[in-house]
Amino acid sequence: MSKRLGKGLDALITSLSIKEDDKVVEIPLAQLRANPYQPRKTFDDEAIKELAESIREHGVIQPIIVRTALRGFEIIAGERRFRASQLLGNPTIPAVVRSYSDQQVMEIALIENVQREDLNAIEVAIAYQAIMDQFSLTQEELSLKVGKSRSHIANFLRLLALPEEIKDHVSRGTLSMGHARALAGIKDDAKKKELAKLSVANGWSVRELEDAVQQPEAKGKAKPKPKSVKRDPYLEEIEETLREKFKTTVRIKPNKDKGHIELAYYGKGDLERLLEILQALA
């Protein structure tokens, strides 16, 4: 757990652990429903089947955490165990009943998943936006809650402005977060869609897509795949490190033993974000 995670939320996550004096009860699966604030929309079917086989052999070793609802109970932690038990046809599941507010439930669902990297980039962005909207949080306030930088939050939220078909590619993994960031800097949606389609069809790397974004568009012609230029692997590795550090397009342009580094920004706010990072490094 990040050191920046607030003490209150740290305590919330800690409250999900099962203690020896907790009262464990058997709750009928029919009385349970999924956490309404669960940001994760897809579950790995194979992983659920493997978990079901483990439960078949050993039972549910760790009880799930629930809270009472108007009808039955809501799952706070343990939805995979619940789904695996359903798959087995088990009538009940061991659970510990705790009291949580709606805000606590949303924060737990978001932070638990994001910290464990269970969500794809679009699900993370939707979850961030949902908790900001629900509880009137700024990007800065949310960044403190989840233990991430404000620029990290801003980069994910920018993905929500992408056309639906591009967001679908990111959700399915056919385009990465790096591809999405490169496309998010383009103002014209038609151009975004065209480059996304070409990137998927040709299997472009993030760097190849960034090259295509910067190429002047030829009238009446589909944009060709950028020419592959043999580059120094060492410089490529540094570019990738800087890209992750600054969360933007980075180019190293060498000239014998010298050269320069270019950082791309997408608006005044993004420029100020980069300046903050550079000033902190000075």
UniProtKB/TrEMBL annotation:
Transmembrane segments: none annotated. GO terms for biological process: chromosome segregation; positive regulation of sporulation resulting in formation of a cellular spore. Its main location: cytoplasm. One of its GO terms (molecular function) is DNA binding. The keyword DNA-binding applies. Residues 25-114 form the ParB-like N-terminal domain. It is found in: Cytoplasm, Nucleoid. The keyword Hydrolase does not apply. Pfam families: HTH_ParB (PF17762), ParB_N (PF02195). Residues 211-231 are annotated as: Disordered. It comes from the Bacteria. GO terms for cellular component: chromosome; nucleoid. Keywords: Chromosome partition, DNA-binding. Belongs to the ParB family. This is ParB/RepB/Spo0J family partition protein. It comes from Cohnella xylanilytica.
